């Protein structure tokens, strides 16, 4: 009995403390070091934050370079397939252009009507957002736990935590971490994402809740609310972070929202340099 | 002879290179486009296999550093992946010290223990000490698929070891 206990303790100690030619550090010392780094990072000491910001910038750039082969092969493949589909694509694009021309005329009429109605209501005419930053997606690694992307613009460009991120004026997410030369964007389908939204003719209010899956869901709806397909969901702006009226996606009859922007297909995004009225996280 | 030595050295750093590359690149093992709940922690499989079979190829310092890089890329608090990798490393070391000869069945069973310890530590630290929230189901699926696919990678790595490094176990 005592021999087996001795065996256990010897094997245990050896596993923790053993060092050798390729193992210059014992596991115990590295575990202690990792715990110290973890708590220093979690409790956010200024020196650690600065160091982390610097490390992030360097690692994101290296990640971007290291991922080059994974980006080249799919683009070559899609380039070849698109070459063979040019004629068909051309016909389809012509149809789309015709449709957009008709929509454009309609839009002009609606926006004029909207301006006139605002004058009647004596409200301020919302100015277009001109202070935006175009950013390239450096890393869009698809983690099983976190849905986020890294962009190549950071605090140097005036980006701060909480700023909304869009693509083609569709909401993509918000900034959750800023470094000097890069930032992390939390996507709408992340488990930690909660956004107040409004939709349908009754201006129903709800919270768009990410679940870590592809499509976020609508929560905190009025009682006995029945979902309908194809209703556009907009940011309500009640959180003081997102612009009211920013389109997000279309509803589905199971309460999920099909986002206008596929979170897995982002190449360029725009950061709206609007200072949030609330501190995020 | 010299060229053979260089080739042998290159093959020997293969697992470590793969570990670093998986940590730093965009290549991910989360194939949610094909199957929504599928995710796999290949780094843990790599670490466990090579710590058991050829510990000389997988230095603990490198494992620690790969964990730190993974944290930066994934957006986790620094040190959390290193901790979970080192726990796997510790269980692997312990199993190697206690066993004379290992089979795929024994490796699979002990891998379950290592994986449970590592993911439990990862989940509890993340949920209790950081702002990041992850769901039980996500980590459950990740644990399940990582465990389920361990034998597949065991065969692949074993084949690599026999073909390029040599079949001598630790």
3D architecture notes:
Chain A has five helices and twelve strands. Residues 124-128 of chain A have low confidence and may be disordered. The N and C termini of chain A lie far apart (54 Å). In chain A, the strands form two sheets. Chain A has a six-stranded antiparallel β-barrel with strand order 1-2-5-4-3-12. Chain A has a six-stranded antiparallel beta sheet with strand order 8-7-6-9-10-11, with no helix packed on it. Chain A has helices spanning 2-17, 27-42, 46-66, 68-84, 86-121, and strands at 132-139, 148-151, 164-167, 170-178, 183-187, 194-199, 204-209, 217-219, 232-235, 247-251, 257-259, 268-272. Chain A has 281 residues and is of the alpha+beta class. Chain A folds into three domains: 25-66, no CATH class; 83-121; 132-272, Beta Barrel (Thrombin, subunit H). Chain B is mainly α. Chain B has a single domain, classed as Arp2/3 complex 21 kDa subunit ARPC3. In chain B, 72% of the residues lie in helices and 0% in strands. Chain B has helices at 2-12, 14-24, 42-53, 60-74, 80-98, 104-129, 136-148, 150-165. The two termini of chain B are 25 Å apart. In chain B, 45% of the residues are buried. Chains A and B meet through helix 1, helix 2 and helix 3 of A and helix 4, helix 5 and helix 7 of B.
User: What is the total domain count of chain A?
Assistant: 3
Low-confidence stretches of chain A: 124-128
**Share of residues in helices of chain A:** 25-40%
Task: Compute the number of helices of chain A.
Answer: 5
Q: What percent of the residues of chain B sit in helical stretches (DSSP H or I)? A: over 70%
Shape of chain A: globular
For the secondary structure, the number of strands of chain A is 12
